[in-house]
Amino acid sequence: MLELGCSDGGNLLSMAVMLPESTFLGIDAASSAIESGRQMAREVGVSNLELSWADLLELDDNLGSFDYVISHGVFSWVPEPVRKKLLAIVKASLAPKGIAFVSYNAYPGCFPRQMAREIMRYHVRDIEDPEH
């Protein structure tokens, strides 16, 4: 399974624990989230999960073939060039009989989440380096 925009890999980690014969790859643009997820995987002793930091726009489409490719919410939050790249990665990575699930935040239910996101983005707008 491939998850694009996996954050700290919590979604994949639980599946990796329950399905030790399967392999999981999570990719996210937040290096701090990826490192946190790697630490959790080490603590749990999971060896079938790989978490990688990458910008989707710079990611090679040749990640391998996956039975499942998922992306929760990312499509709703990124600009058009990233959306196109995300879909290209899904297309290139999906096995012939694989299943893709790309969720999208739909209205009107998404309005409260979007409002909270915009408020947070406003308050961190001047932070140049989120790592510090």
Description:
With 132 residues, the protein is an alpha/beta fold. Helix content is 41%, strand content 21%. The protein has five helices and five strands, in the order E-H-E-H-E-E-H-H-E-H. It is globular.
Order of helices and strands: EHEHEEHHEH
* Strands, total number: 5
Q: Label the overall shape.
A: globular
Oligomer classification: single chain
Unreliable residue runs: none
The CATH homology group name: Vaccinia Virus protein VP39
Strand order, largest beta sheet: 3-2-1-4-5
List descriptors.
132 residues, alpha/beta, 41% helix
Topology of helices and strands:
Blueprint: E1 2-4, H1 10-18, E2 24-28, H2 31-44, E3 49-53, E4 66-71, H3 74-77, H4 80-93, E5 94-102, H5 111-123
Parallel strand pairs: 1-2, 1-4, 2-3, 4-5
